[in-house]
Each structure stands twice: as C-alpha cells, then as structure tokens.
Amino acid sequence: MNNIMASSILKDLMQRRGISGKEMALKLNVRVETISRHVNGRTAISVLDATRYAEILDVKPEQILFPEHTIPILGEIGHQHIVKSYPIAKTLTGPAPYPSWVVGYQYARDLGWYSKRVMLIDRKHMEEGRVSSKCRDQLSIVSIKKTGEIKLAIVNADAQGDAISGDPREWVLRNPYTADLRQPTKLELNWASPIAAVIHIPSLFDCKIV
Q1: pLDDT at 34 over 90
Q2: How is residue 161 annotated by DSSP?
Q3: How far is CA 94 from the centre of its chain?
Q4: pLDDT at position 164, please?
Q5: Beta strand 102-107 pairing with 118-122
Q6: Which domains are delineated in the chain?
Q7: Which of 13, 69, 95, 147 is the most exposed place for a label (fewest CB within 10 A)?
C-alpha cells in the first residue's frame, strides 16, 4: 500500500466528515500527535489503524488504504445487445484496481439477469481501428463498418482471408446468449475487442457508476 496516498485519503475523509484531528484523537482515545503523524504521512497507517478510522468515518478500511480507481463507461448495452454510446462517458469508481487501458460498457437496468453488469475491454483496439486477433470465437464488443453500429457478439471468422495479411476481411457475429438459426451475415468490422473481464454486480466490489 502507498502510505502517502493512504494519509491523503484519511485527511480528505476527515475533512468531508468535519472531524478535526483533536476530535478524532478523542474518539479513538489516542494522542493528537498520533492522528497528525498519520494524516501527514510521517507514520504508516496499519490495517488496524485503518479499521479504527473506518468505524468513525463510516467507510470500509480498504477505502482508506487503497486509492479509488476509475474506469470510463462508454455506453449502455440494450436489447439485441446493441450499444447506445453515451454523449459524455460515465465513470465506474471503486477500490478495485484495473489497468489504465480498460474501458467499459454497462447493461441496461431492464434486461433481466444480466442487468447492470459491466463488460470491460481494451480501449486500444477501438482507438487503433483494428480487430484483435483474440476476438475469434470470443465474446467481444465490435463496431460494424457498414452501419457504424456497436454491439456485443460472439465473433467468428469467415474462411476467406486477406491476400496479404491472411486475416479475415469479413466476420460472422452470433448472439452471445441464445442460438440463432438464421443464415449468418458476413460483415466487415471497424474494430473489435474481446471482453477482458466482467463485473456482474459492481456494488459488491464497492463500485458505483456516476
């Protein structure tokens, strides 16, 4: 854990709650100097210290020990797994650390058992405009070249590849949760990125979308 970061988080939480160092010392039955050393980063905050502070500040200890991480949420997955992009990205915040390249899409709230879950992908495939080689036969977020539509799908490769690179020029997209017996349509894609992780219930990880 980063002691300087923990000290900064503790100081911020105390200010938000309107609790002074002297008041915190009285509540914990410790010297004011002890609180000062923790707040100013001169003494490391232990797990026990964080637990005691958390009880007073009405937070969880990990919220003191670990900095809050954020993930851009770029859109909402609706019916037929079609994505509606947000004009301004929302943000998933919480203590769970994820790499800086991660972005997410959330399911709408009225879609049954998979409502509210968040699908995480690598943003570089989108930014570079390419289909990841790891998308084949995998659940992925894709952008369809002809329509510009973004959706969640299982990506299958067409047998015919590019004469130079050998990579498929067209792809077949399948419904991720139900069997589709219709003749599949071959499509060109702007980009595609496989699902790297799924957060089924963000609140269980103390995460929220704002």
Answers
A1: yes
A2: B
A3: 9
A4: 40
A5: antiparallel
A6: 3-65 (1.10.260.40), 70-202 (2.10.109)
A7: 147
Confidence of residue 64 (pLDDT cuts 50, 70, 90): confident
SS3 54: helix
CA–CA separation, 51 and 55 (whole Å): 6
Span 141-189, pLDDT tens digits: 999 999 999 999 999 876 455 444 446 778 999 988 876 656 678 899 9
Q: What's the half-sphere exposure (Cβ side, CA atoms, 13 Å) at 194?
A: 10
* Residue 145 burial (C-beta neighbours within 10 Å; 0-12, 13-18, 19+): middle
Under 8 Å between Cβ of 63 and 96 = no
Phi and psi at 190, nearest 5°, equal -75, -45
Reported as type and span, the H/E element at residue 208 is strand 208-209
Tell me how far the alpha carbon of residue 85 is from its chain's centroid.
Answer: 16
Mean pLDDT score of the chain: 87
Closest CA to 152 of 109, 104, 90: 104
Residue 151 CA, distance from chain mean position: 18
pTM check: above 0.85: no
Which residues lie below 8 Å from residue 153, measured CB to CB, with a gap of 6+? Answer: 81, 139, 140, 142, 173, 174, 175, 176
CA distance 146 to 123: 21
Check pLDDT > 60 for residue 91: yes
